[in-house]
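User: Show me a protein chain along with its predicted structure.
Assistant: Here is one chain, sequence first, then structure tokens.
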Amino acid sequence: MSVRVYSVLLILSAIFMALLGWSAGAYYVPAMCLTLLAALLWSGRGGGLFKWVLVLNQVGGLVLILVLWLGDGLGSIKLDVSSVALLLNLLCGGPLASLLGGLMLPALGAGKRLSLWFNARPA
């Protein structure tokens, strides 16, 4: 997919999360993060920040799912670990960033479309 498509998807995700924020204020933070990601992608600047926000989002979501699924052995700290993982995921764009990040992270590899976009040299 092209940079424009990813940027539009990020903006639409941010709007959706902001609309959810009317019901639950915690969703304003992912909306702002998704807007930041869309701005970074559109401008072609901050490729390192863009990649690390997506990586942290993926890690937070994966830890959250694994702890909720297999965390019975953790006992009373299961809720603490899952809360931190949820906060990390929401801070880095929430579940919609996780879905889009799964598509965008492979495209950030060396020689791929998004990697070339962030590393373009001005003429």
